[in-house]
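Me: Here is a favour to ask of a fellow structure person. Could you put it straight underneath, so I can go through it closely?

Assistant:
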Amino acid sequence: MSTGAVKFAVEKSLAGSLARAGIISTPHGEIKTPAFVVVGTKASVKSLMPEDLKQYVGNQVTLANTYHLFLQPGHEVIAEAGGLNKFANWETPTMTDSGGFQVFSLGAAFGKGVTKFAKGEEDEINNRPAKSGLNVYSQKFATDHGKLCVIDEEGVTFTSHIDGSMHRFTAERSIEIQHAIGADIIVAFDECTSPTADKSYQKEAMDRTHRWAKRSIMAHKQNYQALKKQGLYGVIQGGKYLDLRQESANTLSAMDFDGFAIGGSFSKDDLGDSLRVVNEILPIDKPRHLLGIGEPEDIVAGVLMGCDTFDCVAPTRIGRTGCIYVKTGVMKTSPCGRLVYPETKKINILNTKYKTDHSLIDELSDGYVAKNYTKAYLAHLFRAGEILGPHLASIHNLNFIVSFTERLREDILINS
C-alpha cells in the first residue's frame, strides 16, 4: 500500500530503551516525534480557536473523531468543504480515529465510568458486549435506550447519543467516512474492550479486529484518490494480556499498513510491558501511536517503550474544571539513565490558597499563559464563572503537554 502519503524515518534511538526520535511526513506537513496530538473531537478543540493552537499551543498535529463527525455535521459536509483541514481551519496534519472507542462507550462501558485503565474492583463490568446481535433494522432495538450498541461479526449497530437515530458502522463504512473527512492519517475500524473483560473475550474481540483490519485495508485500496492522500493505521488490541498483544502485533505487522495505533485497555501498572512486547515486534520503519493516553508519566512510559505519538482529551477536560499542570522543579531520570525530564503535578486552582496567590501559573514553564497570568487571577475567573478561565487553563495545559513531549524528543536527540 506504500504510496508515499505517510512516511516515517527514525532520526535517533535512545540506548537502553525502545525510545526513538523520528519524523512522520504527511501531505499537510511533518510531525517531529515524539509528539502529542491535540484532540479536537468534533473538529473543535473545546474553547480554543484554531489561531490559539498555532500561536499559543504549538501542536504539530490535531485529531478528530469519526463517530462524532459522522453524526454532526456529517462527513458529506466536511468533504464539500474540502476536507478536515479546510473545514476546521487547522493548519496542521490531521488524524481521525475509527470510532471504535466511542461505540465501546455506548455499549459495554455505557454508564459504568470505564476508561482505558482498569481502576479496580469498583469499576468491574460483569456483563460483556453481546457476541452477536442485530444485522438489520429492528424496531425493538430502535426504541431501546438511546445510547446503546450491539457488536456482531460484520460491524456495530448503534443509536445516536444525539437523537436516538439508528446507525451502522462496518470496517468499510468507517473507512468510507474517514475518506470523506479527509484526515492525513486514518485508523482501521476496531473493537475496543473493557479493561476488565476476561481473556476469552479479549481474544474474541482481537480476532474480530484483525478481520476488520483486512477489510479496512481492502476498502482503503479501492479508493485510489484517498490512497494517495491518506495513510492507514492498524490497531493493536489484546487488553492487558501480553501474549494477546504479541499475537496482535505479529498479525498486523504482516498486513499492509502505513503505521500502527495501540488501542484498547490496559492495567496502568502493566502499561510499560504491554507497550514493550508490542513495539519489539512492530516494524521499526513505521510510526506507532498510543490511542487515548497522554498524562505526562504515561507519555514518558510510552516514549521509553517505543511509541511516537500520543493523544488524550485530559488537558482540556481537566482544564475546564480548574485543574492545572505545573512543574515541581525536580528533574527525573528514566531507568535507562539517558532520558531526563521534569517532574509534574496537577493543582486545583479552586483551592482557597490560590485566591491570593499572585505567583505565575507555572514559573518553570515558558508557555504564554504560564508566563503572563497568575494563580490568583485564574482562581478569580473560575470562581466568577468567567469563560476566560477554562479557556486559559486549556491553552496552558495543552501547551504544557505539547512542550513536555517535545522536550523528550530533544533529550533523545542529544543523549542517543
